[in-house]
Amino acid sequence: MANRSISSEQLLEMLNYDRVINTFLVTDEAHFHLSGYVNKQNSYYWAPENPQELHQRPLHSERLTVWFGIASFGVLGPYVFEDNEGAAVTVTSERYVAMLRNFCEPELCRRGIDLSSVCFQQDGAIAHTARASMSVLRKMCPQHVISRGDDVPWPALSPDFSVCDYFLWGYLKSRVSISKPKTIAELKPKINEEIAAIPGQMTRRVKQNFGLRLKQCLRNGGRHLSDVLFET
Questions:
Q1: pTM of the model
Q2: Mean pLDDT: which of 49-53, 58-62, 166-170, 204-208 is highest?
Q3: What residues make up the domain containing 164?
Q4: When you count CB atoms within 10 A of the terminal residue's CB, does the N or C end of the chain come out lower?
Q5: Distance (Å, rounded) from C-alpha 90 to C-alpha 69?
Q6: Is 59 exposed, middle or buried (0-12, 13-18, 19+ CB in 10 A)?
Q7: Between these two residues, 64 and 39, which has the higher pLDDT value?
Q8: Is 135 left (phi over 0), alpha (psi -120 to 50) or beta?
């Protein structure tokens, strides 16, 4: 709880600077299954007692492993981790570095965003925090890396802070599954279509929501948020 409070204070301080607020980039990956299931292995459920609920997972469902970044300027991505045959692959540090160099950095530049003012957030996944990955990030966003053990520490086990966890994955799943894509070839363009349709006003409100969550965490003494709804 202490780590969450410290991180909340530092993150709120960063958000108060106009130069930074529009370039606070929250990032993550998820598996998008053809069944409509979205897997987030670092999402957790908190409750005072065991709810005794079972969450079914598809068996051998075809999937895409997709990376996104989201900020008040919009959504960066998708970037799909796949092999030459289009099959999903594990996100390793080597593949993550390739994504940063060949997609993330060029795409930010294409949008006219000053890299020196980008605050890049990521969780503590091994591929993210590997030496090679952190070296690229520190050069890309000097002194503005929000990650485990870096410029601003990102608290572990905090999906209630992550825009991807509390907004993006659920929103995309609900939108993409409407048309019930039956093949990966149908799923890819549907994800792109729904990302392109997200209005700028929505991403700005989601960003405001993030600030409210940080303040609520401080009021809660660093505890995880419970029974709190924030409009997006």
A1: 0.84
A2: 166-170
A3: 2-37+62-219
A4: N
A5: 18
A6: exposed
A7: 64
A8: alpha
CA distance 212 to 200: 19
**192, part of any domain:** yes
Distance CA 91, CA 129 (A): 12
Phi/psi of residue 119, each to 5°? Answer: -95, 110
Q: What band does 22 get if pLDDT is binned at 50, 70 and 90? A: low
Distance of CA 86 to CAs 21, 62, 65, 81, 140, Å? Answer: 36, 11, 11, 9, 28
Neighbours of 206 (CB within 10 A): 22
- Total domain count for the chain? 1
Characterize 65-96 residue by residue with b for buried, 16 or more Cβ atoms within 10 angstroms of its Cβ, and e for exposed. Answer: bbbbbbbbbbbbbbbbbbeeeeebeebebebb
CATH (domain of 88): 3.30.420.10
Residue 92 lies in a domain: yes
Helix (H, G, I), strand (E, B) or coil at 90: coil
Give yes or no for a contact between 76 and 69, defined as CB atoms under 8 angstroms apart. Answer: yes
Residue 138 lies in a domain: yes
Q: pLDDT (tens digit, 9 = 90+) per residue, 75-105?
A: 999 999 999 888 889 999 999 999 999 999 9
Say if 48 falls within a structural domain: no
| 208 CB-near residues (< 8 Å, 6+ apart) | none
